[in-house]
Amino acid sequence: MNLIAAATAAPTPSGSDAQLIIAALVGIAVIVTLITWLKVHPFLALLLGAVGVGIGAGLAPGDAVTSFGTGFGSTMTSVGILIGLGAMFGKLLSDSGGADRIVDTLISRSSQKALPWVMALIGALIGLPMFFEVGLVLLIPVIVLVARRSGLPLMRIAIPALAGLSAMHALVPPHPGPLLAVSTVGADLGLTLGLGVLVAIPTVIVAGPLFSKLAAKWAPVPVPDLFLSKEEDGGEGSTRRRPTFVNALIGILLPVALMLARSIREAALPAATGTWVDLLEFLGTPMVALTVALLYAMVFYARGGGMDKAAVSKTLGSSLPDVAGILLIVGAGGGFKQVLIDTGIGTVIGDAVSESGVSVLLVAWFVAALVRVATGSATVATVTAAGIMAPLAEGMSTPEASLLVLAIGAGSVFLSHVNDAGFWLIKEYLGTTVGQNLKTWGLMECVLSVTALAGVMLASVFV
């Protein structure tokens, strides 16, 4: 709740509207130029761009630096720990042969034509109760290995899985974003969940398996050399036994089940108390849930894969250097986002469009999309748009209020780009350039957002 409270407190704009908008646009352009033309490391480019935007928007130099540090620290707290735990889990899944078992099972039971659809379903199921970053670190080993073993282009596998994750993140409670919007505008949770699933299904299809065909043409990148098995890297132990499919799948689904149980309890029994509630709250915390999954992997993946204690220790130690650069880049993206938030640009955008005479659903989507593009945060976009639209929801019917929540959710994921920590996380994992990531992941988010909006507008005709 601290994150929500912080995001809800609208900052005082640090300069005029024109100054804020120009500073943000120039800052983004500088970051892209530094990375693509001057080949500056993204971490340094984001740091320089963020501080420059803060100063250009009217913040004192010291405040701009403080704002960047605050965003960096909060991102490392919320995302960095998860990336570290996920890297360890993913390495164990790979080195034990668990990922091989899952991939071989999926490939043997699915045709190449069906694999993108299977990955979209897996992404959606895992993304339902989880933060996007948690689902991503769990799925990355499977995405990479399925692409490598199947021979399909990387984007034909990655984009559908990412579309499933992102759609759940935006549209379906009990995910935190939609759940927050439901509470803010006074919508019915059950109806919103049902409508969210109905809108999410065609959205995932369009933005996932269908769009992945274009993404594969626009970004024909090789499969990254991550999570190589013993057979593939030429190391010893290529004949070692592997965990069973069920054993490997339990490890992946364990944090999903823990977080889902917590979310269901919060939605169904918000006033419940007792030891079991405290236990669910604890185990369902993303960091704890992923730690439990890691401990499970250390025991059961190691046993199933014939790994001794020394092998497990070596695997865990070797997993962290690979993500050191990713951690710094993701943290810097979070710092840039915080600078944009502290300048007040989200407030300026919301005030500029809240009084327009356009359809309420379109305005809600537009406000969320603009704040998302400006700040890079789906949470901030959801909070801002829901707060602006809440007074207008008072006269709405129950179905209309639920559709308002979905319109806000659709807008909150529009166009992931350089100010979004997730943009850098995906870029580094998949080994794309900035341009390729914009044409694939960034554009996929646009397709997903617009398709979801179309579904919401269509549904509004019948309610």
UniProtKB/TrEMBL annotation:
Keywords assigned: Cell membrane, Membrane, Transmembrane, Transmembrane helix, Transport
Pfam families in the record, alphabetically?
GntP_permease
* Cellular localisation: Cell membrane
Q: How does it sit in the membrane?
A: Multi-pass membrane protein
UniProt keyword Protein biosynthesis, yes or no: no
Q: Could you tell me one molecular function GO term of this UniProt entry? A: gluconate transmembrane transporter activity
Locate the transmembrane regions by residue number. 20-37, 43-60, 72-94, 114-147, 154-172, 192-211, 245-264, 284-302, 323-341, 361-389, 401-418, 438-462
Q: Which InterPro entries match?
A: Glcn_transporter (IPR003474)
CC annotations in GO: plasma membrane
Its family remark reads: Belongs to the GntP permease family.
Q: What NCBIfam families does its record include?
A: gntP
- The identity of this protein, by name, is Gluconate:H+ symporter, GntP family protein
Q: Which source organism does the UniProt entry give?
A: Frigoribacterium faeni
